[in-house]
Amino acid sequence: RTNAWFLVRCAEAPDFLAGAVDTDFIGARLETLTARPEAAPSPAAVGALAASAGAGAGQGPWSRGLAGFRMSGEPASTAKVFVDDAPVEVAFVFGPTDDVAISGPGQGVLFQDGAAFAFGLAASHAGHGVGEGGDGLVLAPMPGKIVAVSVAAGEAVKKGQALVTLEAMKMEHALTAAFDGVVTEVAVAVGDQVSEGTTLARLEAAD
User: Fold this and answer.
1) Which are the contacts of 19, defined by CB distance < 8 A and separation ≥ 6?
2) Residue 165, phi then psi, degrees to nearest 5
3) Neighbour-count burial for 95-115, b at 16+ CB within 10 Å, e otherwise
4) What is the pLDDT of residue 190?
5) Residue ranges with strand state E in 84-161
6) Per the CB 3.0–4.6 Å rule, which of 15, 106, 119, 134 could disulfide with 110?
7) Residues 200, 179: Cα–Cα separation, whole Å
């Protein structure tokens, strides 16, 4: 994981290019500069993921050429993949690509615009996007200091509501609820120093 996408946005900002930079440069543009990029996997990246899971393995070029073959109608040329555990249907091709790193069969990391995304044929529930795992765990996306705890155990929360704020790299990162639910645990307090992957809170989905 890197903050390269954040640095690129800073460097491309008109005021930065014009040299009009002061100590409030980031703070005044925080929402724009820190909004995480959205990934759009390339067809070749999806093909690389499929190949890592054994699609067409050991059958030579004919199996790849016949991928999606139908006796009638157009061949199927799309696949369902998961980017930061969000399902996406994308066209695929088999061919060279340099925007994905394969970490295991059907799993890898997608790199776009300086950002890294969990990428797989199945959801990993790793919570790389906003620090929220599929099991309701809210995890620290990077090392830092807890500067605000906005909820308490037993409190009902709405999707997108701020739960815990982490200060890292001189910026504040609000970790939000990924779904409507109830806070079942708050594992940190203001002032705590945490490492990447530390459990900050836990949610239970609303009935």
Assistant:
1) none
2) -115, 130
3) eebeebebeeebbbbbbbeeb
4) 95
5) 86-91, 100-104, 107-112, 115-120, 137-139, 144-149, 156-157
6) 119
7) 16
DSSP three-state, residue 193:
strand
**Rounded to whole angstroms, what are the CA distances from 129 to 15, 16, 59, 109, 156?**
29, 27, 37, 13, 22
Q: pLDDT tens per residue, the chain (207 residues)? A: 677 888 888 999 999 999 999 989 988 888 888 887 788 898 889 888 888 887 644 444 434 444 444 444 444 577 788 887 788 888 888 888 888 888 888 888 888 877 888 888 876 644 433 444 456 888 887 788 999 999 999 999 998 888 999 988 777 888 888 888 999 999 999 999 998 788 999 999 877
Residue 143 is classified by DSSP as S
Residues 6+ positions from 86 with CB-CB distance below 8 Å: 129
Question: Could you give the CA distance from residue 151 to residue 185 in angstroms, rounded to a whole number?
Answer: 10
The widest CA-to-CA distance across the chain, in whole angstroms, is 65
- Beta-sheet strand order (sheet of 181-186): 137-139, 199-205, 181-186, 156-157
Q: pTM higher than 0.70 for the full model?
A: no
In a 10 Å sphere around its CB, with 0-12 CB exposed, 13-18 middle and 19+ buried, how is residue 181 labelled?
A: buried
Which tokens go with 166?
A: 């982490």
Closest CA to 90 of 75, 76, 105: 76
Name the pairing type of β-strands 100-104 and 144-149.
unpaired
